[in-house]
Amino acid sequence: MLKVRLWDDRLSCYVGSEEVMSCRRVRPAKGKRRARSIDFRHVIGGLVRKPNAFYHAALRNDILPDDEWRKLWQRMCSRLCPQLASRLMVNALKLAAEQEDISRVAQGVNQLLLEPGKPDLQKLLNYLNVKGSGELPAGTLVQHSLHSYDKLLQKGGLQ
């Protein structure tokens, strides 16, 4: 059973007596009834499958990690078409989640937007010195002899 303890500055989630998660507590701004805190790492998997959904997302600004990323998004939208901007931002967020360093990836995206030409994910990976999963190593496949099957059939193994 999951228990959530509300503290002044955080929420702590417990299963039994073990704390399994903790997050900061968010309070609504004056005049608002609700506040939200969305960790982009929790939704990035779905966005990667449908990156254009990011462009139309009602909670887009809440999904972005901080003000630096919101400024990057504005710059992307002013420079790129919506589909390309969405795809680049979603892939950059996925990379930030995998690398566990959102500021380094944000610097890479910023550098990418400063360069002339069309920004793409491969340029960002090169800038960050990230090796992609790449191709499988070359290997040789040796087909076994089918003669052994003929012997099996001749001996009456399978009819």
User: Approximately how much helix is present in the residues?
Assistant: 40-55%
Q: What's the main sheet like? A: 3 strands, antiparallel
Shape: flat
Average predicted local confidence, pLDDT: 87
* Element order: H for helix, E for strand: EEEHHHHHHHH
Strand order of the largest sheet: 1-2-3
Strand content: 5-15%
Radius of gyration: 25 Å
Given helix and strand content, the structural type is: mainly alpha
Compute the number of helices. Answer: 8
Low-confidence stretches: none
* Total count of strands: 3
Number of domains: 2
Distance between the termini: 58 Å
Q: What would you say this structure looks like, in words?
A:
This protein has 159 residues and is mostly helical. The chain folds into 2 domains: 1-37, no CATH class; 38-131, no CATH class. It contains 8 helices and 3 strands, in the order E-E-E-H-H-H-H-H-H-H-H. A 3-stranded antiparallel sheet has the order 1-2-3, with no helix packed on it. A hairpin with a 3-residue loop joins strand 1 and strand 2 (10-15). Helix 1 (40-49) packs across helix 5 (82-99). The longest helix is centred in the middle third of the chain and has 18 residues, at 82-99. The relative contact order is 0.08. The model has no long low-confidence stretch (mean pLDDT 87).
Summarize the structure.
With 159 residues, the chain is mostly helical. Helices cover 49% and strands 11% of the residues.
